[in-house]
Amino acid sequence: MKKLPPSLAVIFAALLWSIDGFLRQELNTVPSILIVSLEHSIGAIIFLPFLVKSWKSIKTLGQREWVSILWIAIFGGILGTFFYTKALGYVNYINLSVVILLQKLQPVFAIALSSIILKEKLSNKFISLSLSAIIGAYLVTFGSTLEFEWNDKTIIASLLALLSAFCWGSSTVLGKHALKSLPFEAVTSLRLTVTAFFTLIVLFATAEFSMVLELKSVQWQKILMIVFSSGSIALAIYYYGLQNLPASHTTIYELAWPLSALLLDWAVRGQLLNATQLLGALILLVSMIVLSNENYDS
Question: Which of 65, 74, 158, 286 has the fewest CB atoms within 10 Å, i.e. the most exposed one?
Answer without folding.
Answer: 286
